Hints:
Blueprint: H1 2-27, H2 35-52, H3 57-81, H4 86-105, H5 126-145, H6 147-157, H7 159-164, H8 169-195, H9 205-218, H10 224-239, H11 247-261, H12 275-287
Helix pairs in contact: 1-5, 1-6, 1-8, 1-9, 1-10, 2-3, 2-4, 2-8, 3-8, 5-6, 6-8, 9-10, 9-11
Amino acid sequence: xxxxxxxxxxxxxxxxxxxxxxxxxxxxxxxxxxxxxxxxxxxxxxxxxxxxxxxxxxxxxxxxxxxxxxxxxxxxxxxxxxxxxxxxxxxxxxxxxxxxxxxxxxxxxxxxxxxxxxxxxxxxxxxxxxxxxxxxxxxxxxxxxxxxxxxxxxxxxxxxxxxxxxxxxxxxxxxxxxxxxxxxxxxxxxxxxxxxxxxxxxxxxxxxxxxxxxxxxxxxxxxxxxxxxxxxxxxxxxxxxxxxxxxxxxxxxxxxxxxxxxxxxxxxxxxxxxxxxxxxxxxxxxxxxxxxxxxx
Length: 296
């Protein structure tokens, strides 16, 4: 049972980070291969706030995510001012993530450098992760269905046309990057307080590839697709540990297959909605002999 609990917790943490990347990549069209860096920033910031400044855990999580969002401006402002998108932006995020990892690796005061940040209490549990996943889903759904989300979709479809229609490309892209980094930072904080240990080696490029794979496999402009894919990509290697060494090769092969046969992803352009809640509500009322309201 403890093993299943671990898989669910790690899967939920991956889902939170993938939701943020889905906003940036799936809806805004900006590919990032450096989100592990934002997870590292959020994880270390949360641990420092809790252990050094005695900030309550939940507040420290939110502040850690906010710190990651703030740091995203360091890479976002110059790249978007220079109108870097596509492969150029992906390479910039990769370089930024590697720079963060090297800085953490060589900072021994407070965070332990390459030896890692030890003594972190294991405060992350299943209820906390599930609550965070629910709130992350609700906020992501609200964002992508708002005018800001529509602006992101317009930018991803045709940035020139979106700009002509009055969409501020710089602000839209920067907002999507900051929200995405916030999600990654919260996921990093949850991860650190579950493992009770943080090390720069936990946030290599492989972790960024896993998150990007979840978005691509799950589907572009979809939230439910990346959620399912992120959980599956955590659970399957755990259940089939002998497959782990071949994971990147399998990912590459799946990328090619999906790009050829279903470039939008498995659940691409599938909106997440809560219509099933209304259906269940009507069934509940009908079972007890009550007629639902006409506008229900």
